[in-house]
Write a structure and sequence with these properties.
6 helices; Arp2/3 complex 21 kDa subunit ARPC3; mainly alpha; globular; single chain
Length: 186
């Protein structure tokens, strides 16, 4: 995708909407558009810097919103936390999955929509367990497995969210491409 002012404004709007959605109180844990955005950005934006920037910007804005809501006592969880840099690096790596995703092939999008949440689930839960014992889980194989079990509800929601939001993003992109090429053909 060639970067134009329209594309930049569209992606910035997507960043803000995705960030605001992630900060909605009471939404299911793990059901957020950022993983789908990482795959989508990696798949459709040819400039790798921009592809990495959009999902990370969305994540940062939503973390800032979380922090504001936490400061006012609306959320129990702060937006800025120990280990967030590792989380950002992990999210950035999900964009790399998008680099290998064909934005016009349903099978490729489906594989990426399963791969990104799976990578995030495996690595993030391993990091939690290594960092502080996964909410006081023992530092042995049993404790690691329990940390993964603890994360299963987040994992299921992240797969569902990636499929839902990815379908919206990739579908809209395909419709816009078809509409644009049809208007140039006339």
């Amino acid at each position: 995708m060639k970067i134009s002012k329209f594309n930049i404004y569209t992606f910035l709007m997507l960043v803000v909407v995705a960030a605001a959605y992630r900060a909605i109180p009471g939404r299911p844990w793990g059901f957020a558009p950022q993983m789908a955005m990482a795959i989508f950005s990696g798949a459709v934006i040819k400039d790798k810097k921009w592809a990495l920037a959009f999902p990370l910007l969305s994540l940062f804005i939503s973390d800032a919103l979380y922090q504001v809501l936490y400061s006012f006592g609306i959320f129990d969880i702060p937006g800025f936390y120990k280990g967030m840099i590792s989380n950002y690096i992990l999210f950035g790596s999900l964009t790399v999955i998008g680099f290998f995703t064909n934005a016009e092939k349903l099978g490729s999008i489906a594989k990426s929509s399963f791969t990104a949440p799976t990578v995030f689930f495996l690595v993030s839960n391993l990091m939690v367990w290594m960092g502080n014992g996964g909410y006081q889980r023992p530092k042995n194989l049993s404790g690691l497995m329990q940390t993964y079990v603890d994360g299963l509800p987040f994992y299921a929601n992240s797969i569902l969210a990636t499929v839902v939001f990815g379908s919206l993003m990739f579908g809209a992109n395909l419709l816009i491409k078809k509409a644009t090429s049809a208007s140039f053909a006339n």
